[in-house]
Amino acid sequence: MYPEVGQIALILALLLAVLLSVVPLAGSVTGRDQLQAFARPLSAGMFVFVALAFGILTHAFVTDDFSVAYVANNSNSMLPWYYKFSAVWGGHEGSLLLWILMLVGWTLAVAVFSRRLPAVMVSQVLAVLGMVTVGFLLFTIITSNPFDRTLPNVPADGADLNPLLQDFGLIVHPPMLYMGYVGFSVAFAFAIAALINGKLDAAWARWSRPWTTVAWSFLSLGIALGSWWAYYELGWGGWWFWDPVENASLLPWLSGTALMHSLAVTEKRGVFKSWTVLLAIVTFSLSLLGTFLVRSGVLTSVHAFASDPDRGTFLLVLLAITIVSSLTLYAFRAPVVHVRSRYGSLSREIFLLLNNVLLVAATLLVLVGTLYPLVLDYLEMGRLSIGEPFFSLTFSPLAIAAGLLLGAGIFSRWKKTDGGWLGRKLLWPLAISVVVTTAVLVGYGGFKPWAFGGVFASVWVSVATFWDIWDKSGSKKGRLHGLRRQSRSYYGMVLGHLGLAITMAGATVVSNYGIERDVRMSPGDTASAGGYQVTFTEIGNRRGKNFTAEYGRFEVSDDNGRVVSTLYPEKRQYMVQRNTMTEAGIDAGLFRDVFVAIGERVSDDAWAIRLQYKPLVRWLWLGSLFMAAGGFLAISDRRYRIRDKVSEAEPSVATQGDGTRRADPAGAVS
Amino acid sequence: MHPIRKKRLTIILFLLAGVSVAVGLTTYALRQNINLFYDPSQIAEGEAPVDVRIRAGGMVEEGSVIRDPESLRVEFKITDFTSSVLMEYTGILPDLFAEGQGVVAMGRLDSNGRFVADQVLAKHDENYMSPEVNEALEKAAGKRAAISDAQGEAAASY
């Protein structure tokens, strides 16, 4: 009976969502407060019913209710309890329900944390979020109902969760990613609301910023988790494949990064308003596009579940409605916006503009590389694929350019920066970066142009960031006092930029200096990889809860013959789906990973073994942690909490009474 | 020019510059990095270019997998049940690689019509078949049916 309750809960949530998209909006147009007052209770109600439905589906998984088709297809009684829990979002229907849960969760959060916002704004923002919810609830109920029953022929046991997905990474990766994807709906809703009532002012930018930053932080974490999971679970040590599904998550991240920076300019200086609004619309549209690509079945990958064409069509229509209606609104309303501030041709504004140009260019080329094969295929003009070389060739120069620009931009000032001053300022960081980069490359054993570019960009960003901290923290009362005076959003920015530098360094070094060897080994053999000797000592069998495994024992020793670690890579055979999975053995370290994976058995006593030496591979994900932490730190800044009625007007430049230059909090996440 | 207009013009020029750089890079990179797909029949008929990185896919022919006893070199044939192509690969084959299963490989054709693969992909799970391979198989089956029909008619006319 529970599944039917879940079904009804979803329908009730849909009805509330319909009311939410109409009633408060009507109230805001006609000026009736009592209608607008419905916005918050409706948001809360929507959340309660979706959460109820999600809880019921989870209950069905935990209690092995195989009369629910979705449970029967994605679970099994032998599955450990924690995977039963994460299997809720292991398939199409459930992951969509998770998407919706996140959406109504964000809606509720807006309703709760918007006490200081004008009622008109709140009701419009919540109404827009309600509309998005209507679209996705309709999609779920019509095409992807998670509560469909298998009655009367209830299977004795379930078809099991895909073994690839039986992993800790999968428990956390989708929720994080969806928090990010869906979080951009809030920035979108704020943008639409601002367009509707024509108030694109600094206050609007200030309200949007924390939401955008949080969404971006979650998305950064989600992407990093996905990459980490691919690294150890797909078995072969790659961390980014430029697979269309990965690109789908990178697209909103890139444009979201641009949005975050352009919001900073809009809030601080009151310029780039139309551009910021457009970016908010684009970012959310790209989130929807990502959902479409992954969920419609146009792509075939780990992420694409068995699909039917109705779903794709429905999502495409949803995407089209969103883009067309918001761009139409934009076309009619955006020109109303006036630019008031001025800025020179060398200023922080210009640096941030260039940052946006680069990020948008990167977004475009990832978009082209992802959609081009799909479009050609759809037009029946041939099947082709665009792989890693295309993206490396086009993406790397843009990433390096963005890093170089960022290092210089850190020192720039709002309105006007003196070119000669900036040039002299950059001289020392430049010299330090060249020396450090050269040392790093020599340490890794060889000059490569791309490696130089990437490492230089990341060293450059770090040096400039620390230099800036030093400059800003100067104080008569001592360095510590100066450091304490900096705002949290400034430190958030510092962490974000250092995170970018760390990720870039990791990506560059591991792609240029990593070693990958496929060798044929029998027990007793030794092979080397990147200064480590790997000895294959034995092979054996073991039994897990729902799989059997053949494992190898490998001793990793360093140059001096000292054993550093012992690894047990496995080849697992899952009992229900009869799938073979490779579990790599990884000796993880801050500066390098040693990676061993067992391939197929090539003769009676020999196996194909992949050995890898991965310098700085952890930095890829460490950098993302820094970026996300930076985002969370930035939004905890007091300025987002105490600035309420006082200054909804245009912002003033941050100079304090005592004449010392305060850390520009608004330049913060720049 | 009015300073605001001037500013807007600068912004537009910046954007145009960015977009054209992106477009330039993209088309340049695209021209070099597109990998077209060919099925075994097309390769057998010589439609696929030699020494250009392409993709090829089909079913691994039963009994065709030969391993080198000393290294990780392996040879196998892929087929669409009309024609087959000899493939050579050195390295670790994916977990789901097996005789009678669909695979897609990236690599180059050498002048002897042998496909030297640098990457071999098998499907992700039991139920999934690469759309390219599926299409190739259907196409080949259609052709065979047409041929046998023609033969049948020829036989009937005797």
Supply database-style keywords.
heterodimer; A: 670 residues; alpha+beta; six-stranded antiparallel sheet; four-stranded antiparallel sheet; 11 strands; 61% helix; 11% strand; disordered C terminus; B: 158 residues; five-stranded mixed beta barrel; 3 helices
Model description:
The complex is a heterodimer of chains A (670) and B (158). Chain A is an alpha+beta fold and 670 residues long. Chain A is built from 20 helices and eleven strands. In chain A, strands 3, 4, 5, 6, 7 and 8 form a six-stranded antiparallel beta sheet that branches. Chain A has a four-stranded antiparallel beta sheet with strand order 2-11-10-9. In chain A, helix 7 (119-143) packs across helix 8 and helix 10 (244-269) runs antiparallel to helix 11 (273-295). The longest helix of chain A has 32 residues, at 202-233. Mean pLDDT of chain A is 87; it is low at 301-306 and 643-670. In chain B, 31% of the residues are buried. Chain B is of the alpha+beta class and 158 residues long. Chain B has helices at residues 3-33, 40-44, 131-156, and strands spanning 34-38, 54-60, 66-67, 73-79, 84-90, 102-109, 115-122. In chain B, strands 2-4-5-7-6 form a five-stranded mixed β-barrel. Chain B starts with a helix and ends with a helix. The model of chain B has no long low-confidence stretch (mean pLDDT 80). Classes of the chains: A alpha+beta (670), B alpha+beta (158).
